[in-house]
Specification:
Elements lengths: L12 E6 L6 H15 L3 E6 L6 H7 L4 E3 L5 H4 L4 H18 L3 E4 L2 H4 L2 H8 L4 E5 L10 H12 L3 E4 L2 H11 L6 E3 L23 E5 L8 H13 L5 E5 L5 H10 L3 E6 L4 H7 L2 E4 L8 H9 L3 E4 L4 H5 L4 E3 L4 H13 L1 H18 L2 H19 L2
Parallel strand pairs: 1-2, 1-4, 2-3, 4-5, 5-6, 6-7, 8-9, 8-11, 9-10, 11-12, 12-13
Helix pairs in contact: 1-16, 4-6, 9-14, 12-15
């Protein structure tokens, strides 16, 4: 909270709020931001509105308190959960009122449509809401858009993590541009450090894909591209990291195509996996700003990605972009990297430099602090 004797606009405390603390990309960004703020002497607390998760232990190691609001989720509990919603929301309001943070920054839809109203009741004036992905999930759902717009009216500033996400928010939500800022994701320092390559078979080129198994992540296109490469005399080892509902079907399809595909599930040794990879591939049909792409850049691993969302913003001229849903184009991009090692090395070196310059956690944290302080100053005028 604001310290006595500090000038207006000085940031004393922040609450970061999110639905749950599972091992997701946005959750990881929240933890990195929390640690960066704390390291700069700012008091930080985290609110998990619906569930906890593995990242609670990371926050505990940094002595950052986590408040579990215990709000019900409609998908899991349905109408029965409404009986718990009111007392849980009231607890959340009381906790916010007791902490009196200078800024509340809330991440992801289910949290940012609840928290601005709680902040109003708690007397908190500065509320920031993050936009971390394209809003395709809201298309055709008027209720979701109505609730979002109502919450945004009670929000001080919306922060997108890429120009592509910002443009999507302007189009879909009809946000006034003055209410929108862009602060891109930050890559943790561990990805810039030299890592011991993971113990994986390397008699073939290793193609690494870091993505949850969801239809829009494009794994089927990647499998088709790998089959094309094999038919052209360039068999590869696919290393697929992640979990999700599509995994069984993707495993079955890989077997049908006769591909060598290693399904590793969730892993915590991603730097080591990047160190052994010859190319990192993201075949998504949509993206906000991909942490997987940024991490590969920082690790000096050549990247082939689809030209969707913020991928072009991330890579600039330091990777290869191909059209989505096009296995032939994806195979050609992968082959280019694997067959021209000199070009691949040049791209990887340029990507690493770009990641250090534009996408470090320090840069991300400092940009958030500058935004928070400007909003505090404006609120106190």
């Amino acid at each position: 909270m604001q310290q006595r004797g500090t000038p207006p606009g000085t940031l004393g405390s922040v609450v970061l709020a999110i639905g749950q603390l599972g091992r997701g990309g946005t959750e990881g960004q929240l933890v990195a931001l929390a640690g960066g703020l704390q390291a700069r002497g700012i008091e930080v607390a985290v609110a998990a509105l619906y569930d906890g998760g593995p990242y609670e232990s990371d926050l505990a190691e940094m002595h950052i308190p986590v408040f579990r609001a215990g709000l019900p989720t409609w998908r899991r509990e349905g109408a029965a959960g409404l009986l718990r919603a009111v007392p849980a929301f009231a607890r959340y309001v009381r906790w916010l009122r007791e902490r009196r943070p200078d800024v509340v920054h809330v991440f992801l839809y289910h949290a940012y449509v609840v928290t601005p109203f709680a902040c109003r009741l708690a007397g908190i004036r500065t509320v920031v809401a993050g936009r971390r992905s394209l809003g395709n999930f809201k298309e055709g759902h008027r209720g979701l858009l109505w609730l979002e717009r109502a919450a945004t009216a009670a929000t001080t500033r919306v922060v997108a993590n890429s120009d592509a996400v910002a443009a999507d928010a302007l189009r879909q939500e009809h946000l006034p541009s003055r209410k929108l800022s862009v602060i891109r994701n930050g890559v943790r320092e561990v990805f810039f450090e030299a890592a011991e390559p993971a113990a994986l078979p390397h008699d073939r080129p290793v193609v690494l894909c870091l993505a949850s198994f969801r239809p829009y992540k494009g794994h089927r296109v990647l499998l088709d591209a790998a089959a094309l490469l094999a038919s052209d005399g360039l068999p590869v080892t696919l290393v697929l990291v992640g979990e999700g509902g599509e995994r069984p079907a993707i495993e079955e399809r890989a077997a049908e195509l006769g591909l060598r595909a290693l399904f590793l599930g969730e892993r915590h040794d991603v730097p080591e996996l990047l160190a052994v990879a010859d190319v990192a591939v993201l075949p998504s049909f949509e993206e906000g700003l991909s942490n997987a792409v940024l991490e590969a850049m920082a690790a000096g691993c050549p990247v082939v990605a689809t030209d969707v969302g913020g991928n072009a913003e991330a890579l600039g001229e330091t990777g290869l972009l191909v059209q989505p849903r096009d296995a032939i184009a994806l195979a050609a991009g992968i082959a280019t990297v694997l067959n021209d090692r000199e070009r691949a090395a040049d791209l990887a070196a340029a990507a690493r430099e770009r990641a250090r310059r534009e996408f470090s956690v320090d840069t991300m944290v400092e940009r958030h602090i500058r935004l928070y302080e400007s909003l505090i100053s404006a609120a106190r005028r």
